[in-house]
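Q: How do we represent a protein-ligand complex in a form that can be generated token by token?
A: Start from the inputs.
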Amino acid sequence: MSFSLKAQQQPVETPPPYALNVVYFVPTDMEPVPDYRRRLSEILLWLQDYYKCEMTRNGYTNRTFGLSKSLDGTRINIVTIRGKDEGLRYPYRTGGVKVLHEVNDYFAKTNTPQKLSDHTLIIMPSTSGNDLEPGGVPFYGFGKDCFALDYPHFDLKYCGRHTAKGQLFTKWFGGLAHELGHGLGVPHNHEKVSERARLGTALMGAGNYTLGMSPTFLTQASAAILDQSQTFRTTPQPTTPAPVIAQPEAIEIQFTAHAIEVAGKLPAGNRVCHVLVYVDKDEFGVNRDYDAEAFVADYNRAARTFQVQIPWAELHPARGKLFQLRLLLVNDDGSQSIMTYNYHRDRLPPKDSYPTREVAL
Ligand code: ZN
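Then emit the structure tokens for the protein with zinc ion bound:
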């Protein structure tokens, strides 16, 4: 009796070309929190599916970040790395660089697992000593890496529960999902006025406090960035870097009673896939951009032209008069070019053309 080889094979999901590196980093005086592989696998599988649903809703069907999984798909392959120092030697503010240094050293050695992409999520057990008030360790996005923490009640069974452990879970679960967004290349943005009632809170705004408790979503702008992010790719990433664009070939910004209208043309030879415009109010810069609404421009890649209308009614009220328009170009290798244009609400020119004229505030 003979079987065909085909009949004996189980259907195997084709692994994506890239996957998020998931590292569990344990200081010398600590042990992994019990059952971490099951708990973190369930959480990451949930998040992979959440990102997939949100990408699909935004028109990028079934796209999500890759994860290395066990054959039955129920466990994530987590790389557990023993640190060289005690837990308190990796504090929130300065510990990230130190941990990253050790993680990179680990991956650079022979006889250790290869990195599966340029993006790494590093999870550390809480060093606070209080299971109901975890903390103490790095918790932020840092270039292509991001940090999150683990504690005994970090378990999907608490998701959506209106209990102390449920509230605590959302804080660190939403936090992980949000910091992961940063580690995958996504900046902060705020839901537009019309999106709040329809879709809830933007994950890359205050969504780290709502995920699992109330509707939380990825904006069109965040999805456009993730479309070209390495771990979301279904084909190999281009090996030659896309050119950095310092200025568009032309850009015109008009202020009408109803909208800000932005139109322009990109330089020849660009490798831009998406053109985004952020409207950042009051203060600009790192961690001052939570309030920025983001808009995806219509972009004609062949003609290199883009345009977008930003209704004033879609912007939440500002505290002051200053605001910044930020043009973010997403390249086909996942890199970004960013240009900024600053304005004052009381001194808006009807029309501004760049780069021919600079506006003085
Ligand atoms: Zn953030």
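The CA atoms of residues 152 and 251 lie 53 Å apart. The pocket of zinc ion is lined by residues 178, 182, 188 (CB under 6 Å).
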